[in-house]
Amino acid sequence: MSKSTNITWHESGIDKKARRQQNGHYSFVLWFTGLSGSGKSTVANAVAQALFEKNIRNYVLDGDNIRFGLNKNLGFSAEDRTENIRRIGEVSKLFVDSGQVVLTAFISPFKEDRTQVRELLEADEFLEVYVECPLEECEKRDPKGLYKKARSGEIRDFTGIDSPYEAPENAELVVNTFNQTVEECVETVLAYLTNKKFI
Description:
The protein is 42% helix and 13% strand. The protein is α/β, with parallel strands linked by helices. The chain is globular, with a radius of gyration of 17 Å. 32% of the residues are buried.
């Protein structure tokens, strides 16, 4: 991939602080990470609905949805997964700059990739939410039939089967969809955000 040359950064006339003031709330990323089938998208969308009802501007970036457009040219090799997350990190930063809350639901299996996204943002703008669920339970749920295909060899490099998942060690938040209901997970996230005075 060729790199851009002869470019100059153009500063916006409206800064992040002003956009936050207009929106009436802080802007940040809620980065939901976990195995396929752990409930990332379900919890992220439920949190988004709760934030929407509180008049907090937000948007969900979902792993599958992004691969229909922005990242449709990427596969699932380690290199493509890294590029997938890099792009989402940059898009997430734009949402934060616009004064909004962005919720991302991506497996994002590699710690280094998640760390690079964190480093794109300022302190307290990246909140990692580990959606914890045992592999056995995720495989039992298998909402998209992907584990079955991975076990049969139809899908290669599948996280948790023949590609690793590096669980967060110091996530800001951990929700467990095996032991908690979706509603309880949402309450956990909202309580954290309220305590931080982000909402």
